[in-house]
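This section describes the prediction task in plain terms. A model, or a person checking by hand, is given the sequence of a single protein chain and must write out its three-dimensional structure as a string of tokens. No templates, partner chains or ligands are provided. The sample shown here is typical of the held-out split.
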Amino acid sequence: MHYRFFPLLSILAVAGLAVGSYGMVDRLWNGLNPVAFGSYVPWGLWVAFYLFFLGLSAGAFLVTILTYLLGIKPFLGIGPLSAFMVLVCLFCEMLFILLDLGTMHRAFYQFFLTPSFSSLLTWMFVLFNLMGLIYTLKTYFLVRGDIIRKAQGTRGPLGAIYRLLSFGRREYDAAMDAADERRVHQLAWISLPVGMLFYATNGAFFAILINRPIWNSALTPLLFVAAALLSGGALVAFLTYMYIDNAAGLRDTLMRYLGRSILFLLCLFLVLEAMQFFVGYQTGRTDIVTSLNHITLGRGWWIFWVVHLGLGSLIPLVLLVFGGGSPRATAWACFLIFATFVAVRYNFVIPDLAVYKLEGLEYVFRHPRLSTEYVPNLNEWLVSLWIISAGLLAFLLGTRYLPIVHPHPRGVDHAA
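The expected answer:
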């Protein structure tokens, strides 16, 4: 495992929290007054980041299913790391979507008091909480044995944390190990339908909006799934290269598996994206063509052509195809894919909102909040920096001080 970057990344995360705290305090104190989005563009940068972390969690979710349900043994070494990554991504998703709400405190009780089960939003809330519960339990049962063992040999505050998490247990025998193995396998079975419904519901939430022509398509949920698996799988592959030791060639074997999978998913996503643009332009509908032109020819054209297609697609394709299966080349390709994928999410959310649905509407009512000219402002970027830094710090501390990487293996033989 590679901890040589831990001090530097921790310092950057703490610095991000310090800088972003100004925007966070401003958001909590003044509500949505400091943000740039308004009535015509009600969703902005934070929803794009929500979808970004949703995709990252989906890739990690898939790895846990392959490991603990289908029994794919090469993935055993990154199974616990992937389960923990799902939790961190869910944490970031929750913060982004809560802060996007005008009265976010209502989310803590309104869904319980007046749930509407005909609403996809209610089901997203239910499935989100189920995912959080399942993966909290799954991660704990995966590392419980190592936590109990560490509790007996570690002193100081860290030892106290281990003893607290051990719930008074001092020994971890074969019977407990087998019981935890069964629990992980059972949770994997439960998480399969819950996870599939959770990610599909997020895609369907956009697809059913009939006044948004780009979103309102049967292709949207499929694009959501492909995008999620691509970005999340790329992150898992990069973390595999960074954290997993190459003992007996384990890391290189995993990187070959993951590299081929990422190459396939990248090609699949680009084909689906090309189909979306081709069909959209072929319709000739003004609202669709205008939205697509906003992506390809608008003032944010560079987000699509340079960040997404250049850095996030073309260079990774070259590295994956001509890199000779090199783990380092695969890792760099995967880093570029997941690091630039927020551009894809941004270009999904904003363009369909940036078109007036009634001709001449822009001349009837004039107000800064009644404009489709949306650009994220400083407050939105500072809040985003704070949340990303919080997620990064949680991930760093978890992988450094909890037995997330290389814990006692379990689940594969039982699941096979």
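For orientation: Residues 411-416 have pLDDT under 50 and may be disordered.
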